[in-house]
User: Fold these one by one.
Assistant:
Number 1:
Amino acid sequence: MTTYRTILMGFGNVGRAVANLWLQRGAQIEREHDISLRFVMVADRSGAALDPGGLDLPRLLEVKAATGAVAAYPGAELGLGGAEAISHIEADLLLEASPTSVRTGEPGLSHIRAAMSHGMHVVNANKGPLVVAYHDLMRLARAENVAFLNSATVAAPIPALDIARYSLHGAQVESIEAVPNGTTNYILTLMEEGRSLDDGIRAAQQAGIAETDPSLDVDGWDSAAKIIILANTLMGGSVRLDDVSVQGIRSVGADELRDLRRRGQALKLLATVRRDGDELSLSVAPARLPLDHPLAILRGSGMGILFHTDLLGDLCVTVTGDDSPFGTAQAMLRDVVNIGR
Amino acid sequence: MTTYRTILMGFGNVGRAVANLWLQRGAQIEREHDISLRFVMVADRSGAALDPGGLDLPRLLEVKAATGAVAAYPGAELGLGGAEAISHIEADLLLEASPTSVRTGEPGLSHIRAAMSHGMHVVNANKGPLVVAYHDLMRLARAENVAFLNSATVAAPIPALDIARYSLHGAQVESIEAVPNGTTNYILTLMEEGRSLDDGIRAAQQAGIAETDPSLDVDGWDSAAKIIILANTLMGGSVRLDDVSVQGIRSVGADELRDLRRRGQALKLLATVRRDGDELSLSVAPARLPLDHPLAILRGSGMGILFHTDLLGDLCVTVTGDDSPFGTAQAMLRDVVNIGR
């Protein structure tokens, strides 16, 4: 049994889902894959809970639910600086799930650099660091001889990065079309049924799908981050946020959506990347798709990615019916299992 | 660089596609994955070409194209018995691509056993041995400490077995719906456009999609073999051909298909497996699907697999536009690359 002494940065929806999923399925993963996690540090903005012998996860979840703060865990250190703390902990693995900034990549970027520099593997759910510094981080991981896996960053239940890693050898991805943001797809689905954009946003917030500030989703930035990660991972790109033409769904009208459907089309917030000579061309924008397009049939919070390849035809992976953060948590745990391979 | 001394059994569409793909993309795979293949034996029904230093693949392809027989390769041994020959060759890897029998599993079953018993890894494109002896072969592979990978056996361009291996840790598959046979889907698509079953079969044969004897596809046996492999691999099953209720498409009428589509449904040859208490329940039969079902939109030789999971929602993988045997060949090469992990 390999036991990873584990640091979990971020204890919001994703971080707590990782803890809960480990409590539910950890024994199964230990049995089937000879891998175990010992959580030696869990941190949020309030502070860090620390225990080299392993934190009491049920108690930590209770404390967080009751107070909203990891700092209320017995013996926790208040406001401990993230990267600084990582540098001083004996650990083997960082699970990075702190809040995303696609502009600066922080604070996750510093967490990841600190962890790699101290010889830790990194399993990352945070898009920001990849959008800002994908190739730098890949180089650092190689130099430090640590694993750096990011399945949770791109429409997590869809094994897009696993497919890149394990299933496309010898084949080339020519272009990608994706509906990688479930929140906007949920809102567009409600708008097709006659609701306004603002109504759709409120409903998505009530369903726990949209954040309090929905602009990351609604204005297309989350989709842009994901198509950048796909372009850099699957198509050899070296693309940043300024290279993507980004338009969200604020200009879309409910009438337009219903008219389109009557004419046999669906409007989706589509993220695309294609080769354009030696360059990659990326965009995020509302797009009209015929109803028999595999991304057009996605309703509710469904997501999908369509890979156009040279050897394998058009490979499409979709997911529907996953509105919980467990899909993201599972993506992190499957990366942990795959580190050893 | 790891060089596998390789035996290729079967030099029909799939075997030749493997040789051609290696000629086209082998250098790329060597560069990216530090893995190489040296073909020391290639055999078909006529005989075996042998060279411990590595066969001349372009010449072998020419000879096969000109004469239809590997036996015409310079120095080839005539009618060399498959399993017997494998036992006497110094090799590290068997690529099994000989003709399938889902009833007996032979000759592939004997090839695979001989290879494993002599310490060779096996990458297999042949459904028959898995349908007849899945668990026996898995046990033998573990006992001999060799890899046994089968990506090419289930709708090859779809990374179904890769997803099981690398992407579902901690999650459970509750049921599977699949359209795993492109030939019948191609015929049904033509029938929707008004062609008869016999016309559809002839068109599929002319397009190189259907075999001369189309019954394996048309009567549902190919689909049955694939859903058995999925059930045994992803759902812990121990299922054989007699456990599957199998109905093909011979009773389907073109009028029925067109009527259904007018009523917003599509008819597909659907293979399913679901849990039924402690047992698995499997069937292959024509089924009516609503037009927004992710398998209903598959046209032509498209294939798809829909996994209903407990943690990740409904995950659907489809492929369209791959009518060549290169998808199957690529599945074999990706398994070779993944052996090392």
Number 2:
Amino acid sequence: MTASSGPFTWKARVYWEDTDGGGIVYYANYLKFLERARTEWLRSFGFSQDQLAREQGFVFTVVNLTVDYKRPAKLDDELHITCVAHTCRSASIRFAQRVYRGPIVMDDPAAENLLVEAQVRVGCVDCKDMRPRRMPDFLLNVLSSKELS
Amino acid sequence: MTASSGPFTWKARVYWEDTDGGGIVYYANYLKFLERARTEWLRSFGFSQDQLAREQGFVFTVVNLTVDYKRPAKLDDELHITCVAHTCRSASIRFAQRVYRGPIVMDDPAAENLLVEAQVRVGCVDCKDMRPRRMPDFLLNVLSSKELS
Amino acid sequence: MTASSGPFTWKARVYWEDTDGGGIVYYANYLKFLERARTEWLRSFGFSQDQLAREQGFVFTVVNLTVDYKRPAKLDDELHITCVAHTCRSASIRFAQRVYRGPIVMDDPAAENLLVEAQVRVGCVDCKDMRPRRMPDFLLNVLSSKELS
Amino acid sequence: MTASSGPFTWKARVYWEDTDGGGIVYYANYLKFLERARTEWLRSFGFSQDQLAREQGFVFTVVNLTVDYKRPAKLDDELHITCVAHTCRSASIRFAQRVYRGPIVMDDPAAENLLVEAQVRVGCVDCKDMRPRRMPDFLLNVLSSKELS
């Protein structure tokens, strides 16, 4: 799903469930697309969140986010959602993500087909008490090899 | 929330989140309204599902349902959702539910403001293994006092 | 996406957005999966619902449905959703649909990985007034060539 | 719904539909609660968004937002969502919003029951082409009388 030179990208189709009465994708639903891309980014390293929860006892939760809605997505659009881990600390990861309509020519904030731009910080928390905890080393090692800054 | 003579009724407003690009409430979202009414019906007996899960170790899950979509609900409509337990067995409850736009004059399948009619059977399952299990007696006793048939 | 001998099938992954606090897919959300499969079934004949709405002035809405929830789907499951048009009249289509966890060996109601079974009738309505209307001939001709009964 | 001295506040209950498999409210669903409060804030001035769309030809869409997730909400929680319009220009409004679990003692960022803090900018766009447009004077006059800065 990822072009060799570009950022990790995941595709998703816009269905009726995603739109609202204004005829465009409902603003909260872009957060679902963003999370699907983060989940598949993690899976591209061989990690399933269900497995991490059951076997390692932790989940990722979103700590904060900013979203810029630049252009609306519509029914039947094919979205391309990028996912770049900008920094990865022992208990949290900071993602830069973009949602495009159709293929990405360049990952460019001025692109005509760039719909949404987001910064998302997710934290690692313990399943039992939902308190922050350090990611296991095998995960940190793999992710840090992809760290950008 | 319930008129003395009529069925248990819960009110809900239609927001943007509930509508789709056709300008009406998305068909899956009526199931959310139906469940809010069932949850509040149970709460009217003093039971919170969160508490039942944590303290008694069981949850209710939907076993099957039928839904008739008669007229569409729209943004800003105030819905009145009824909830009647038709039969209550040791491990399941069968509900008849209706969704009206605005106040219910009579709980009548020919009413002009009847939007949706549903039959929903929910089963009691154990939180640990999701297998069917008998409801505790204190719950059965309270519910059966309201049983209709 | 469709095996040559079996019914039309569409795949969907279960993400966090689809699950609820019981750890399984929320009962309303299966209706989203069912609709994605119907949308892609229609697209397999070359029809986009967005285009039909804009150029032909009609949409499909669900008239009624029955759903049997047999086994729960969980986070990260890969669902296979089938879609068979049982009858197609001038203003409505009746679908039989099933949701499986993982690949379908046989489209069999006794299969171990069959999670949900549904019957869904959708009607063709005019975008302007949401009243039933006849589908255009080009659509009826294509669909009836696939009609089963 | 609003205490005389505090910010505009709207109440919402957490249902199964809002939670995810982690047992807490799914991060995108807080955006639904935030919007319900903005919708009811507007309704407190006598304006329904459905009516504004049909009679005045415009809708509000979210331009950008930031959200801080401080503590998770759970099933059955009663949320209190505040809504303050910080600035109101001719084509957009900037809101500060908070989500509390249970009653608000003080609208305080250090409160123990503060779950979510958000900044949301919404723009007024034309229904026909989704392009920014000036709000009508009758709306600006009413809103600006509540403007804080």
